[in-house]
Amino acid sequence: MTLQYCKKCILPDSRPNLEIDSAGNCNCSFGDESSTIDWEARKKQFADIVDEIKAMDRQYDCLIPVSGGKDSTWQVLKALEVGLKPLCVTWRTPARNKLGQRNLNNLISLGVDHIDVSVNPKVEKAFTLKAFEKFGSPAIPMHMAIHAIPMNVALEKNIPIILWGENSATEYGGDAAFKGTEITRAWLEKYGVTFGTTAESWVSDSLSIRDLGIYKWPSEDELRQASVRAIFLGEFYKWDPRKTAKIAKEYGFEEAQEALVGQYTFADVDDAFLMAIHHWMKWYKFGITRSWDNLSLDIRAGVLSREKALQEIKRIGDETPYEAISAFCDYVGISQARFFEIAEQFRNPNIWIKKNGLWVIEDFILTETDWRMYEV
Ligand SMILES: [Zn+2]
């Protein structure tokens, strides 16, 4: 396979759900679509949904899954602004850091009820290691929990709608049919980021279905009967990470001193290692890092030229997150040698080749090759 890079941003077609058209542009809805969207009409649409929900007169109007990050802070602000009473629900990451806790406290102080849900750490560790070994993705338990917990709480508490933030299908390319819809199993399979698995798929001698119960999605019947809807606020308000961060900061959200993952000090700030490993594996699998996503969003937002982004990639160089790898290994109980052994199994043979005893990406976007080579 020859890697093809989008002419406008710097993302390659190895990224899942990303396609490059004959003109050389990717489907990350670069400028074109979002500039033709009638945002005023969308706002009106949202107002209609809000009226509908309020008329139901339930204990809670909506459920907002939150981490305390800039996006969830913004989601809460938006919900409060339009007069909704939200219940906020967090899956407590085992990697939560001090800044993450402060930001979550800040979010709650905006004036919401909140539930912080912890998974049995023995189960979570074992599941995380299995997911990393099987799919090179330590974030499968996280993604399952992030969806299952709010859904089950919404059903249990009779909450009519879940308010998500950014729609990753819009932000990085994807299927238009899934933009803004009722939650179905298909929706979960598409957005769950669980490699097509469900909690049931991970039952083994060491993990029973009862152990994994907290990760279980509601059945199709339960979903239909309760008719819990889910919408992305990013479908109704133009989603701009910098603007979201600015607003969140005005309401007490704190940035990190230094970017923990990728280039943004205002994103992925609450987690000491899981997100870093999750994103790092994209280097093996797709030949990109979180910085590539960040820089591509900046190009799209018009704050960075493609040429500058490429200079940045070159300047940043090797992004191996050694600290996060060390913390992750301590967490799941493996050696770093074992970590790299597992990671190596996910090096994509379609994009990486061995040259003079080094791993290189064929047809890499930059022609200078020294920093991207890996000793074998
Ligand atoms: Zn693009």
Question: Would you mind describing this structure in some detail?
Answer:
There is one protein chain. With 376 residues, this protein is α/β, with parallel strands linked by helices. It is built from 15 helices and nine strands. The strands form two sheets. A six-stranded mixed sheet has the order 3-2-1-4-6-5, sandwiched between helices. A three-stranded antiparallel sheet has the order 7-8-9, with no helix packed on it. Helix 3 crosses helix 10 and helix 12 runs antiparallel to helix 13. The longest helix is centred in the N-terminal third of the chain and has 18 residues. The chain is globular, with a radius of gyration of 21 Å. It binds zinc ion (ZN).
As laid out across the biggest beta sheet, the strand order is 3-2-1-4-6-5
Strand content: 5-15%
Distance between the termini: 22 Å
CATH architecture of the largest domain: 3-Layer(aba) Sandwich
Output the helix-strand order. Answer: HHEHEHEHHEHEHHEHHHHHHEEE
